[in-house]
Amino acid sequence: MTEKTKQISTKDKVAYGLGDMGNGIAMQIVGSYLFFFMTTILHIPSYIAGLAVGVSIVWDAVTDPIMGYISDNTKSRRFGRRHIYLIIGMIGVALTIIGLFFIPIDSSLTLKVSLIFILIILYKTFITILVTPFTALGAELSSDYHERTRIQSIRSVFYMLGIALSMVAGMYIFFQPNAKYPVGQLNPEAYKNMAIVTAIGTVILISIAFRATRKYIPRLNQHLIFKTNDKMSSKIFSTFLNTMKNKAFALIALSYMFNNIATAFVNIIGLHVFTYTFGFSNTEFSIIIGLQFFFSILSQPLWMYLVHEMDKKKCVLLALSITIGISMYFVLLAVFNRQVESQIIYFIPYAIFAGIGTGALFTIPASMVADTIDLEELETGIRTEGVYFGSMTFFYKLAQSITVFIIGGLLTFIGFNSHLSVQSPDTRLYLGLILGFGVAISMLLSYWSISKYTLTKESILSIQAKLQAKALEAPQD
Questions:
Q1: How confident is the model at residue 231 (pLDDT cuts 50, 70, 90)?
Q2: How far apart, in whole angstroms, are the C-alpha atoms of residue 89 and residue 60?
Q3: Mind listing the pLDDT tens digit for each residue in 436-476?
Q4: Please, are residues 83 and 213 in contact by the beta-carbon 8 Å criterion?
């Protein structure tokens, strides 16, 4: 192994990051707006909307390890193991996003529900085809302990920018109030315009990443897997189980699962809470979310420095402590929702500290997964990043699907009425409490999991030294 295999040019890191900006935009548009769109624009009952999203996430979870296996075992000298799926995925994702937000609002409930189920399953299929190979590509671009963190940090910055564009610019640009819709979030045409712009942006950004990283295919092809005599179904199952035998990976996957359960709470009812509990306009909502992502991005150099000084595990524990504390502050805001309604000043501390805490959680765990895969390579001589990242997303998406279904039921239970522009005081309170406590409890469980992680910087560097020695001893082609 040479330094050339470890270092990636800044230009290419940025290009790869731009691709994840496209992923972030595409996933956030559906993750944060679709449930609100279904319940308030299409007037689909919340429990049916929760079921539709939940079923789609189960499908997404099941297909992730399968896609990871397919990607790992793709044998293309021209496109490598990953790149062909970036093209297929981005086209499918763009088309299905447009389809979802163009469902006619005056059609029958049966037709609307049927179209939602079909299109969201198609969307989840294409997002899996796109994101699973894309994420695995980032993990295999470099074998260097700190270079991996740099790649993931730059990727995370652009991913967060993608989310910010969706939530901040998207909300501000597309959901301006007018005479007919004084609450801009209730304007059906805004969702159509947003979907078209999202589809075009996703295709452009993924194409940039595709072009920039194609040059690495010859080097990455050293990991092509040519011996696959077993049946595909049994092989997928066995490789999936093998990832769980890697204890370090299993702990990160469990922690990541709880982090993403917290994300599910924010994505599914965040817009409901800020609209109904705190009475925020599109501009006020954009400011708070924009401030949060600004500090997430601003915190990246800090977390990079702390990784060098403290180790990755300690940094994640610190970030989780920050998010748990600020989640309890959010609960306090929910309790006093009438007193803080539309007053941004009370939400600035939340935005700042939530941004700093989640800044680390966007970046460091993915880098830690790449470290755990070194163990597999040392023992087997191959790297199956696709299966590892597919396994990780399988667990958190399965948990997310249950969470989404529960949230849909909770909205019905607390008396949320999509036909009302102002909810009852109890409903407003309960919406905020569901979000605040849901995030806090999820982060506590994540803290418990990552606290048991045992790989240190020293142990990873030792494993990588052994891998380098084996590579030098191997016969050259």
A1: low
A2: 13
A3: 999 999 999 999 999 998 887 788 788 878 877 776 665 55
A4: yes
- Whether 8 maps to a domain, the answer reads no
Which of 233, 222, 93 has the alpha carbon at shortest distance from 162?
93
Going by the DSSP 8-state scheme, the letter that residue 381 receives in this structure is S
Q: By residue range, what is the domain housing residue 435?
A: 13-224+236-471
Burial class (CB in 10 A: 0-12, 13-18, 19+), 449: buried
Return the pLDDT at 224. 56
Tokens of 52: 């539709």
Q: How far apart are CA 87 and CA 207, in angstroms?
A: 8
What DSSP character marks residue 170?
H
- Cβ neighbours, 10 Å, residue 241: 10
Kindly give, in sequence order, each residue whose CB lies less than 8 Å from that of residue 342, ignoring residues fewer than 6 positions away: 278, 279, 280, 281, 284
Task: Report yes or no on 6 lying in a domain.
Answer: no
- Contacts (Cβ under 8 Å, ≥6 apart) of 186: 40, 41, 421
Average pLDDT on 222-250 reads 63
Describe the chain by its helix, strand, coil percentages, rounded to 5.
Answer: 80, 0, 20
Q: Taking the CA atoms of 124, 292, 150 and 378 in sequence, report the sign of the dihedral they define.
A: negative
Q: Rounded to whole angstroms, what are the CA distances from 357 to 60, 324, 350?
A: 27, 9, 11
- Assess if residue 304 is contained within a domain: yes
Instruction: State the CB neighbour count (10 A cutoff) for residue 197.
Output: 17
Residues 164-190, mean pLDDT to the nearest whole number? 85
| Cα angle 417-415-264, degrees, rounded to a multiple of 5 | 85
Q: For residue 397, what is the domain's CATH number?
A: 1.20.1250.20
Q: Which residues contact 59 (CB under 8 A, 6 or more apart)?
A: 121, 124, 125
The pLDDT assigned to 86 comes to 92
Domain count, the chain: 1
User: Distance between CA 121 and CA 47 in Å, rounded?
Assistant: 18
pLDDT tier for residue 239 given thresholds of 50, 70 and 90:
low
**Residue 381 Rama label (left phi>0; alpha psi -120 to 50; beta):** left
Q: Amino acid letter at 366? A: A
Q: Tell me, what amino acid is at 323? A: T
At 331, the pLDDT band (50, 70, 90 cuts) reads very high
